[in-house]
Structures are given as C-alpha cells and as structure tokens.
Amino acid sequence: MVFIWNTWKRFEYNFLYFCPMRIDILTILPQLLESPFSDSILKRAQTKGLVEVHIHDLRSYSTNKHKKVDDYAFGGGAGMVMTIQPIADCIDELKSEREYDEIMYMTPDGEVWDQPTANSLSMGENFILLCGHYKGIDERIREKYITKEVSIGDYVLSGGELAAAVVADSLIRLIPGVLNDETSALTDSFQDNLLAPPVYTRPANYEGMEVPKVLLSGNFKEIEKWRSEKALERTKTRRPDILKD
Questions:
Q1: Tell me, which fold does domain 192-242 have in CATH?
Q2: CA–CA separation, 179 and 184 (whole Å)
Q3: Among the four 28, 122, 178, 232, which has the fewest Cβ within 10 Å?
Q4: CB 58 within 8 A of CB 87
Q5: Looking at the domain 2-172, which fold is it?
Q6: Number of Cβ atoms within 10 Å of the Cβ of 17
Q7: How far is CA 166 from CA 27, 47, 71, 137, in A?
Q8: Cβ density class 57-76: b for 16+ within 10 Å, e for less
Q9: Is 84 helix (H, G, I), strand (E, B) or coil?
Q10: What is this structure's pTM?
C-alpha cells in the first residue's frame, strides 16, 4: 500500500510540475548500453519524455594522452584498477549541473538490489550509475563520491554495464505512464513479498492442457483468491526466503 501511495504521489507531482527522471551512466564501454535503451519499454519511456538516459564515456574525460582509464594496483597482484581522475572529473561535472539522489556503483560486494529498493528509489529524480571494470575502481572514489553500492547477485560479470541496465530498467518501469497498464508494475513478482501467480492466455485448451476453470468463470473475487493462493504456494516452494511474517 505504501508503494501504491508513493506511485500516485509521484504521478501527481509529475503531472503538476513535469519532472522526468534522469539517469547518467558512466562507463568505458558505452556501446554495450546502446541496445538496452533503444528498444521496447525503455525506448518508449524516453520518447514520452518520462525519463532521460545519458551515457558518458569515461575515456573522453581522461587526461592521459592515450586516453587510458586504468593502471596497475599498488601492492601488486593480477588485474588493473580504474583510475581516479576520469571518474572524478565526470562526476564533478555532473554534480555541478544538478543534485543527485544517489550515486551508485555497480559492484559484486554491494547491497543486493531488490524490488523494495527499486520501489523506494523510483520516487527520486536524478541518479548516477558507475560501471566498474577490471579489478574495480580506486577505493578513494568509493569513499568520496559513492552513496550506494549495488549488486544484482552473487556472481561476477565482465563489467558493470549489464548490472546498470538491470537497475535502470527496474527503476524506469515503475515511473507512472511508462507501462501501458498502470496496474502492471503493482502486480509484479516481489511487490508484496510474493512471486507472481501462474498466468494463461488463449487457447483455453491446448492439446488437452486446460486453463484453470476459475480463470474463465468471470468471478473476479474467486479469481483474486485463486491468484493469491497460487502466489503464496509458488513462493513457499521456490523462494521461501522472501516470505515475511
């Protein structure tokens, strides 16, 4: 209920003042992010003016004559480390133009991203997402600039670009007006600490496999009861860890 209320308040605020969300993504591989934001829901959200996504190539901020953005780690060891200067200069420039709700760093040792976090942050306006590479970024960037460290799971990717796309997608789809069906985001998995129930579409009978009769009954009270029961049943079986008292 809190999320529904907050969603309505954001819709009301946007309607009165029109303030689209802005997401700035800092990366050394901007081409990796071209596709996720140029199709489907994320593209339509930008076309509607509900969100602005700006991708910044950190190499363009490097003062190194070869546009290097990495160097060897102090103390030795395998792997390179992303250097301070390009990241700091990019963040300083962006912060001089506007205030940011969060400056997030995509990292395996961050806080695991989940639906309640996405719900909460979707009320914000401006975000920076920093994509790591190699062995990570110089720790001093984390200490000075980063306000939230985010992981999308207990595994390692080649870089933070895919994680940034996941975080951005989960935020953007919650903005009122992005989805055609305004109730769609409210009934997603995890919104009420339950997985989504099974869904069906036509035909009602496919090679002897029939849709549950309650879904064809037109009795919406019974349908909602069935969906709630199935959502709880599925969650108990597949993700008992997310159930709360």
A1: Trp Operon Repressor; Chain A (1.10.1270)
A2: 7
A3: 232
A4: yes
A5: Alpha/beta knot (3.40.1280)
A6: 7
A7: 15, 19, 28, 20
A8: bbbebbeeeeeebbeeeeee
A9: helix
A10: 0.86
Residue length of the chain:
245
| Three-class DSSP category at 206 | strand
Domain ranges of the chain: 2-172, 192-242
**Residue 66 tokens, joined:** 């070869």
113-155 residue pLDDT tens: 999 999 999 999 999 999 999 999 999 999 999 999 999 999 9
The CA–CA distances, whole Å, from 121 to 15, 148, 223 equal 19, 11, 32
What are 187's two structure tokens? Answer: 């009934």
8 Å CB contact between 178 and 172: yes
Count other Cβ atoms within 10 Å, centred on residue 133: 21
In the block, residue with structure tokens 């009978």: 205
